[in-house]
Amino acid sequence: xxxxxxxxxxxxxxxxxxxxxxxxxxxxxxxxxxxxxxxxxxxxxxxxxxxxxxxxxxxxxxxxxxxxxxxxxxxxxxxxxxxxxxxxxxxxxxxxxxxxxxxxxxxxxxxxxxxxxxxxxxxxxxxxxxxxxxxxxxxxxxxxxxxxxxxxxxxxxxxxxxxxxxxxxxxxxxxxxxxxxxxxxxxxxxxxxxxxxxxxxxxxxxxxxxxxxxxxxxxxxxxxxxxxxxxxxxxxxxxxxxxxxxxxxxxxxxxxxxxxxxxxxxxxxxxxxxxxxxxxxxxxxxxxxxxxxxxxxxxxxxxxxxxxxxxxxxxxxxxxxxxxxxxxxxxxxxxxxxxxxxxxxxxxxxxxxxxxxxxxxxxxxxxxxxxxxxxxxxxxxxxxxxxxxxxxxxxxxxxxxxxxxxxxxxxxxxxxxxxxxxxxxxxxxxxxxxxxxxxxxxxxxxxxxxxxxxxxxxxxxxx
Length: 463
Fold this sequence. Notes:
Blueprint: H1 3-37, H2 41-69, H3 71-91, H4 95-123, H5 128-158, H6 162-181, H7 197-215, H8 222-245, H9 259-289, H10 294-300, H11 306-310, H12 314-322, H13 324-342, H14 351-377, H15 385-414, H16 420-450, H17 452-455
């Protein structure tokens, strides 16, 4: 790749890194935020839920907006909004202000992330060059998820507001670099047909309600959850009917007939469900049961960041030799191994006893994230690359919501008291949720492997 191409790639990878650390840092700063702002448990939950709703709910609309309005234009505008509302979150003195800021920040990420990914998938020709770019992009993005807790713990030890101010500084650097390096492109041609506004409204409302129903399931009654999910399914049905009849649909339904894309999205959902559930339980185990400080817990998770080094160096070589499907399957296997190993953690387990589980999680991200991104975007027409990115990251976010809701519900149900033995039993019972997600993903990945000759793109060459 030329120097300018590397510059564009690093800017866009920096944006996905920014999105990853923003989510992870907030999770570890929540106790400090609760203490400082005096938030109830319900209000604190909405600090997380607001971002999830903005991000997961508007991702498909954001991806299609990039295809229609111009990817560079949407990326830069979303990055500006992300910068401003991250700063507002850091300045918040009331819970309502923080919740509103997190919703808009998530909405901005919903437009920024698929736009950035589609700039890569359309700016780098399909084949070895694009695959190498996506490997680097995936490695840096995965590093945001895994290193975010470490960085967040260190910043929270200073002041939780730095968890919001640090992304402001990084966003500003990325904004200047993106404006200088990302080449301008002609605005996509319109054929005169009206924009699919009804499709955009129905799919956004459907995804928002579905994510809300899943994410709030452990905090509200069954009737409320069932009603929310049912309303979401009705809106999905309406969206399907609208798209079949619209002359310029927001989502061309034919793209959903791509078997590799559908399997990649399902695996992505399960992978993120397992990881976010695992991450949540590990933090509770270290801080609530073991009494570790925020900094100690963050440093313990530092080993997860091995993917930052290994993903751009080791994974391309493995993919070049074995292909996408086997490497992805190996990554999913390491995820299942990690969660199974953590089940044996006792109330006095040493860090060395916990280390194999944490290393396996880092290896899972090393091997899975890049190949998964490639499979989800290869073979999709250039005019729909933003949509493909939106589908993948919607799956990621929905998976995260499912994983967190699942482990929270099981943990609460399995913990009868606050005694250490009861806490440990609750963590072990809840860890079965990530384990089940990972095992299911392994099964789907194995199916991919068996059918790779016809269902998956060819193996990489010259990555």
